[in-house]
Amino acid sequence: PRLANQIAAGEVVERPASVAKEVLENSLDAGATRIDIDIEAGGSRLIRIRDNGVGIGSDDMPLALARHATSKIASLEDLERVGSLGFRGEALASIGSVSRLTLTSNNREEGSEGCSALTEGREMDVQLRPAPHPRGTTVEVRDLFFNTPARRKFLRTEKTEFNHLEEVVKRLALSRFGVGFSLRHNGRVIHNLKGAETTAEQQRRVAAICGPAFMEQAIHIDSDRSDMRLWGWVALPTFSRSQADLQYFFVNGRVIRDKLVAHAVKQAYRDVLYHGRHPAFVLYLELDPAQVDVNVHPGKHEVRFRDSRAVHQCIFSTLHRALADVRP
Ligand code: ADP
Ligand code: MG
Questions:
Q1: Ligand 1: which atom is nearest the Cα of residue 136?
Q2: How far is ligand 2, taken at its centre, from the CA of residue 324, in Å?
Q3: pLDDT tens by residue, 46-63
Q4: pLDDT for the residue 80
Q5: Is the CB of 147 under 6 A from ligand 1?
Q6: Closest CA to 66 of 49, 47, 46, 88
Q7: Where are the beta strands (DSSP E) in 107-244?
Q8: Which of these CATH numbers, 3.30.565.10, 2.60.40.1880, 3.30.70.270, 3.40.50.2300, describes 2-193?
Q9: Which of 84, 130, 195, 258 is the most buried (most CB within 10 A)?
Q10: ipTM above 0.95, yes or no
Q11: pLDDT value at 24 more than 60
Q12: Which of 21, 70, 172 is the pocket-test mutation for ligand 1 (most atoms within 8 Å of CB)?
């Protein structure tokens, strides 16, 4: 089973950013409202993620680390309408097979003690010992790829790896305004985002993540149709940026990259006046979960819409109207 885990790890665990993504998604699935992330050396030395979610009972600790063990789906039908971010039950097992992983958790209220399990690469004997922990979970991943030197060799510089990891945190922080996030790298605070409820607080978070210039030159849109809602922020043509693309699109709280979506956005921009410019946006599409299939790709960045024409039309017309309104 160890070898199988290491092979699976190749799919799930490409670099520190992919570890962070899996662990953070587990925290969100556990209903955390506060997540603290500590990174050392771009994540190759340490990725520590602490949440205040439901926690894991001591009986379930070995299961959480076992391959194909998930508490999130019980049947094939569940898979159809899975609302959680993870459901394949192999992330922790895979990460544990290529690192020194400590899982510490407590699923009970204050005053109770939690427990901790340590796995180290191939020696996956999960030893449980009592450990103090408030309700919630801490996953500590040390020395990623210490036992797979070939993969370790493919890691880029500390800065590059951290940038990838930070991007993962940004996306998730944009996808869950209600959750507080902190991110530290080598002891330095990079982000400290309090839970955002009001529009003003949400705008503050978007500004913190996308830069104040984006927020200053973005318009807020919100189109409520009976069957779907598109809301968020799109930049005006006065906003120009030197760095990479600033394009975030979320469907029912999940980050997605989708050709249909990209096409609809681009067409709306081009139609109004934004010739030759890359649109910049943070957009949220909310629709009946039965109308989207999120299990198309294990990377989970792709979706399939039941009625893709309606989605295209909603994005195009909403953006077109908003942009035409502010045309100078
Ligand atoms: P999956 O997310 O696909 O179920 P994982 O390997 O990522 O698989 O996690 C295995 C199981 O461990 C989860 O189904 C969940 O029960 C438990 N688990 C992992 N992380 C957490 C967490 N932060 N809080 C509560 N439970 C967790
Ligand atoms: Mg998971």
A1: 24
A2: 42
A3: 999 999 999 999 999 988
A4: 46
A5: no
A6: 88
A7: 114-120, 123-131, 136-142, 180-185, 188-193, 218-224, 228-235
A8: 3.30.565.10
A9: 258
A10: yes
A11: yes
A12: 70
